[in-house]
Write the structure tokens for this entry.
Amino acid sequence: MHETIAPLNCTTMTEVRAGVDAVDRALVDLLARRFGYMDAAARIKPERDHVRDEARKAQVIDNARAHARAAGIPEAVVCDLWETLVEASIAYEFEAFDRR
């Protein structure tokens, strides 16, 4: 993979797009790892009704909100993304649980 230029050092849209594409690839790799943990959770949890855990969901979203605040990015946007991510993860875990 080519080295990307830091956002503050970009001077062309080609550089910006290359950086965005690199970040997107890294995010997909991280999502694959996260979904791997959903496979593990489905394997470890003894009962299907343990898949949905609203207290844990709230904790995960609160953690993301705190990280967004610390990073100086919009908290509401991150919370919306994490709501979608967590719900997709729960749906995936249900499917993984049912497959075993």
